[in-house]
Design goal:
Layout (H helix, E strand, L loop, with lengths): L1 E4 H4 L34 E2 L15 E8 L4 E8 L4 E8 L4 H18 L11 H17 L4 H4 L5 E2 L4 E6 L1 E4 L3 H12 L4 E4 L16 E2 L13 H16 L4 H16 L9 H12 L3 H21 L4 E8 L2 E9 L6 H13 L4 E4 L4 E7 L2 E8 L5 E6 L3 E3 L8 H7 L22 H8 L4 E2 L4 E8 L16 E3 L13 H9 L5 E6 L17 H6 L4 E3 L2 H8 L3 H16 L23 E13 L2 E2 L6 E3 L5 E7 L13 H11 L2
Parallel strand pairs: 7-16, 8-9, 8-17, 9-13, 17-26
Antiparallel strand pairs: 1-14, 2-6, 3-4, 4-5, 10-12, 11-12, 14-15, 15-16, 18-24, 19-23, 20-21, 21-23, 22-23, 25-26
Helix pairs in contact: 2-3, 5-10, 5-17, 6-8, 8-9, 9-17, 15-16
Cofactor: FAD; FMN
Catalytic activity: dihydrourocanate + A = urocanate + AH2
GO molecular function: FMN binding; steroid dehydrogenase activity, acting on the CH-CH group of donors
Length: about 650
């Protein structure tokens, strides 16, 4: 049997993000993921090390301290006796629930069990882990202890064990596409093993908007059709014709549009055929041959999720780069958490036969002859898992927006050179692991130069979660206070424009009516007051004051807002930038006024492993690689939350 090793093909891949060694216990799954089954890895305490906890002395009592996590402070409460840390509890935190949960459970447990601060960060939750460790260190010092000594105390012992597992199917990656594949396969009777690089399921969906594109059964969620929507619709059809889409296909969409309103409808129009034209005009690719079948897959995904209890609420909206209002969000869930809460519940209530190997990145594909028959990876506690699979392996390891080396290697679009620092919106782990593994077996990598940059990432931490204002239709100004772009353009055009602005920075401007804040929090659960405290948001009672806060000339800024408002009211056309879809709701008129500072960051990689209609990996000559399937952003042409549909579609075709 032949094994392909990512460490040999791309030596720096395994260590690209974490500078510290990673402590792990694969068996410890946080409360938020209690429904998920994992393989057991139980680190043992080693007795070597300097400054052992047995020599510690504390002033007995209960102490509290805080340290910064990702979203905000993490506060711990530590109870100490004269010679021991008796308990550690995280009492307050703002970090994403699912991402931080393994760290909030495991790090305190290990500190108490080992009587040591020499425990490492949980993979994918580094900032939360370090905040807990530093907060406990503060408490130790408050109790007259020696935190520096405890940071040299006992640490978990690494395992050298190898475990063999037999399964029907291996899925590599527990993001959206991987989880859809694993759950769908298990629902149809397969024993599934999932390798996951981080300590949790969710991938990038947990730090994205988590927007689901819906076409059917949501008439009550549609906004009213506006003149701006009509103008955008007609512009999309004209662009489709200009791009060579067959006229009969475009004419059929126009006829459906006309019939919809002739029947007395007043809400925004949509259809899977129009979706195909819209996405082809923005992302490229053939509308009828690629995007229309893709729309049907997305619709199948929606129905499957709804059948499992996924619910959406609110009004359909557009988002940056995709302004047509067809995006819906889960009820009472931040970002993409709604998807994984449903998956948790499905796994638990249906007792699905899925084994999750968290913190176990796949490093090898096992090949028998020319067929992929399994995968192998090492858990961060040292245990190696070799899993043989009768049905083969599905790669769902995501894209490579977190790997600057690969971005630069394949870049065909952006003004980057070897010295460019490329930030990313991605969560930990999206470094092209699956691409390297598949290429090592002869798979073709296609369209790797198609790299989508996010034009409105947080200007400090590059996240997508701190946006205040209408990300799809708000007013964008640069640091001089000047409007510089049609805000409804695709992400490629928007990002290119942002890169040309002073400091490569912009502000999304909004007011009390269109900021998107509800009870002081944005759509992703961030407190506006906290964002202001961290200089991630500016708020003022006048436009002049807001201009001063962002360093812009008040007169220049006021003119930009006045001109924008005139277009929004319909007083004048946008003759400078050509934006069509605006309404009075977009106007900036009522205090308080907000400016959300943003910049660009690598976000989505559209190219990937070449696949056939059944998602089988293909070589450059079009031959399929037996037993190897690729879904989600790891595959060519699929990206974003909607690519979750490829995981479901792959399994349904495999088992048809």
């Amino acid at each position: 049997m032949k094994e392909i090793n990512t460490a040999e093909v791309f030596p720096t891949l395994r260590n690209i993000s974490l500078s510290r060694r990673t402590f792990v216990a694969c068996a410890a799954i946080a409360a938020a993921q209690a429904a998920l089954v994992s393989a057991g890895c139980a680190p043992e305490v080693q007795s070597s090390g300097e400054g052992l906890a047995s020599t510690a002395a504390f002033a007995p009592g209960t102490y509290t301290a805080s340290a910064p996590g990702k979203k905000g402070p993490v506060t711990v409460e530590v109870r100490m006796s004269e010679n021991a840390i008796e308990s550690v509890e995280v009492v307050e935190f703002e970090d994403t629930e699912r991402i931080s949960a393994p760290a909030r459970e495991r790090v305190p447990q290990q500190i108490v069990e080992l009587q040591s601060l020499n425990v490492d960060a949980v993979t994918g939750a580094t900032l939360t882990s370090m905040a807990i460790i530093e907060s406990v260190a503060d408490c130790v010092n408050q109790a007259n202890g020696d935190a520096s000594a405890l940071k040299k105390a006992a640490s978990p012992e690494k395992s050298d064990e190898t475990k063999e597992i037999q399964a029907d199917l291996v899925v590599c990656g527990a993001g959206g596409a991987g989880m859809a594949a694993a759950v769908a396969a298990a629902q149809q009777g397969l024993d599934v093993v999932v390798f996951e690089k981080t300590a949790y399921a969710g991938g990038n969906a947990l730090v994205s908007g988590g927007w689901l594109e819906v076409f059917e059964g949501v008439d009550d969620m549609k906004p009213d059709m506006t003149d701006g929507n009509r103008d955008m619709f007609h512009a999309t059809l004209q662009k489709s014709l200009d791009n060579g889409v067959p006229k009969d296909f475009v004419d059929a969409v126009q006829a459906d549009f006309d019939a919809y309103f002739a029947a007395g409808n007043t809400k925004v129009y949509d259809s899977m055929e129009y979706y195909a034209l819209d996405y082809a005009s923005r992302n490229g690719g053939p509308a009828k041959e690629y995007w229309l079948p893709y729309a049907h897959k997305v619709n199948d995904l929606n129905n499957w999720l709804f059948d499992q209890g996924y619910t959406v609420s609110g009004t359909l909206v557009g988002i940056v780069g995709f302004p047509w209002p067809r995006k819906a969000h889960a009820v009472d869930k931040e970002n993409g958490e709604g998807f994984f809460s449903v998956f948790d519940n499905t796994v638990e209530t249906q007792s699905l036969p899925i084994t999750f190997l968290f913190e176990t990145p796949v490093s090898e594909l096992i090949v028998d002859g020319k067929a992929v028959v399994g995968a192998s990876g090492q858990c961060a506690d040292g245990t190696t898992y070799r899993v043989m699979a009768d049905r083969g392996v599905i790669l769902a390891t995501g894209g490579y927006s977190g790997n600057p080396d690969l971005l630069k290697k394949y870049n065909e679009m952006w003004p980057w050179d070897e010295s460019t620092v490329i930030p990313t919106t991605n969560s930990y782990g999206h470094t092209g692991d699956g691409h390297v593994l598949a290429e090592g077996l002869g798979a073709e990598l296609k369209n790797m130069g198609r790299q989508m940059v996010f034009p409105i990432a947080d200007s400090i931490d590059y996240s997508t979660e701190t946006i205040v204002g209408n990300a799809g239709l708000g007013l964008f100004v640069n640091v001089n206070g000047e409007r510089f772009i049609n805000e409804s353009l695709d992400r490629f055009a928007l990002s290119a424009a942002v890169m040309k602005q002073p400091e490569e920075k912009l502000f999304i401007i909004s007011d009390a009516l269109n900021s998107g804040l509800v009870n002081g929090y944005n759509e992703q659960g961030y407190s506006a007051d906290k964002l202001i405290e961290e200089s991630k948001l500016f708020r003022a009672d006048s436009l002049e004051e807001l201009a001063q806060m962002i360093g812009a000339d008040p007169s220049v800024f006021a003119k930009a807002v006045d001109d924008y408002n005139a277009i929004a009211r319909g007083d004048v056309a946008d003759t400078v930038f050509g934006r069509e879809n605006m309404s009075e709701k977009d106007a900036i008129i009522e205090a308080p006024f907000y400016a959300s500072p943003r910049t660009w960051a690598a976000h989505v990689t559209i190219g990937g492993v070449a696949i056939g209609p059944d998602y089988q990996a293909l070589t450059a000559d079009g031959a399929g690689i037996e037993g190897l399937y690729v879904v989600g952003e790891c595959s060519d042409g699929n990206s974003g939350v909607s690519s979750m549909s490829t995981g479901l579609s792959c399994v349904n075709q495999m088992l048809a």
